[in-house]
Design brief:
single chain; alpha/beta; UDP-N-acetylmuramoyl-L-alanine:D-glutamate ligase; 18 strands
Length: about 425
């Protein structure tokens, strides 16, 4: 099987949609020899912050000398970027070989696995083949019924935070959503919760106690930073008297950094050898796309994959932090199931003009409907017929006015936007 054939096979699997549950993935993995049981895993759930946390944690572990596998979702540029070894994306041939080997097992099954289930199985198989010392694995959605939740004894379960998102699948309240996220907690295995919701904490702490799992929370006592620590070059702060730097933008990276450093201490207690110099160099070298990422400086062009209310709130905080009193130009596209009516309330005062587009995804909201919703709430918005038109108009307007351009919404737009930006 070559790469195009592998992508074609996955496209067919995608037609089955998203179906929560573990029966299919367990059957598939059993046919494959249960590769998930042969590697150490740090399992990450949470509404926001999973990707940034995973990127930082894996970079620290890599710099400590470990061979690290990473599985993240959704893919930002192409399917291969969901799979990384020591930070490096696998090749098209690597992906083709994995899918080619797994496909016969899928076809043998009466109930065929979904696209994400096959990708999950491919990740576990990849990590075994590459003899990874540890794997950092993100949940796709929720926790208890997510296909990654087949790990019997993770070295650490991480729940970054709990906010409202994917309500159609996970419920409309924090308690309901937290119950799903807490499903990744395993008996006797440590769990870390990095959020600040009392309701979520009550659910997660109860689940941890019920399974005899020690619960850890962020330790801010050793951390300090100031407003000056945030710049377009990244985030600088002090930990245990040492100056550290992360080349990632976004005010929320402060919380992510606290979470990573607290979890580093937990891993040390679990037997991982992580010297302080590995923490410093790992954080300084971290790379992660699509999270308040600076793509250009003149004018400033930033891509942020904020797609739920908490993500949009964090994006608004970051716009205020990095650009002070200046308003921004927005390019925005969302999925139909998002609470996009709230975006105008959160971003209206920060926006000069919003250009709306329809992402290239079957679940995407029409650009006219999005513009109408934003205009109805007082945000000046203009709908664009195509993504290319929207990106070009937004960039030209920002350049003419000398304002930053903030691209918000689905991560599915990232590749599309960067390709257009290269031509402008």
């Amino acid at each position: 099987m070559n790469y195009n054939e592998a992508c074609g096979y996955m496209k067919k699997a995608a037609e089955r949609g998203s179906i929560l549950g573990l029966s299919r993935i367990r059957t598939l993995l059993r046919l494959m020899g249960d590769p998930q049981d042969r590697i150490r895993v740090i399992h990450i759930s949470g509404t926001n912050g999973k990707g940034s946390f995973g990127a930082m944690m894996s970079s620290v572990l890599k710099n400590a000398g470990y061979r690290v596998g990473i599985f993240s979702s959704p893919a930002i540029t192409r399917v291969t970027d969901s799979f990384r070894i020591n930070g490096y994306e696998i090749t098209e041939q690597d992906f083709a070989d994995l899918i080619g080997d797994i496909a016969p097992f899928c076809e043998f099954m009466d109930e065929k696995p979904t696209e994400f289930e096959i990708l999950t199985a491919a990740a576990f198989e990849l990590f075994v083949r590459r003899e990874c010392d540890v794997a950092v694995v993100e949940c796709g959605m929720g926790g208890d019924l997510d296909s990654t939740n087949v790990i019997k004894a993770p070295v650490l379960s991480v729940i970054t935070n709990v906010q409202t998102d994917h309500s159609a699948f996970l419920g409309s309240t924090i308690r309901e959503i937290a119950s799903h996220k807490a499903g990744i907690i395993k008996a006797g295995c440590p769990v870390f919760f990095g959020g600040n919701s009392e309701e979520a904490y009550e659910i997660i702490s109860g689940a941890a106690a019920g399974k005899g799992s020690e619960l850890f929370l962020p330790d801010y006592s050793e951390f300090s930073w100031s407003d000056e620590g945030f710049s377009l070059d990244g985030f600088s702060f002090t930990y245990r008297g040492e100056s550290l730097h992360i080349p990632l933008l976004g005010t929320y990276q402060a919380e992510n950094a606290v979470n990573v450093l607290t979890c580093t201490e937990i891993l040390r207690r679990r037997g991982f050898d992580i010297p302080s110099k590995a923490v410093r160099s790992g954080l300084a070298a971290v790379k992660w796309h699509g999270r308040f990422e600076l793509l250009r400086r003149e004018p400033a062009v930033i891509y942020d994959g904020a797609h739920n209310p908490d993500g949009i709130r964090c994006a608004a905080d970051s716009i205020r932090r990095y650009f002070g009193g200046r308003k921004a130009v927005l390019l925005i596209g969302v999925m139909k199931d998002k609470e996009y009516g709230l975006y105008a309330d959160m971003l209206g005062e920060l926006t000069e003009l919003a250009f709306t587009v329809r992402p290239d995804n079957p679940r995407a909201l029409d650009s006219i409907l999005l513009a109408d919703a934003l205009n109805a709430r007082g945000m000046k918005a203009s709908a664009c017929e195509s993504y290319e038109e929207g990106a070009a108009r937004a960039y030209s307007y920002a350049k003419e006015k000398g304002l930053p351009l903030i691209v918000l919404g689905s991560l599915y737009m990232y590749r599309q936007f960067t390709e257009v930006l290269e031509k402008l």
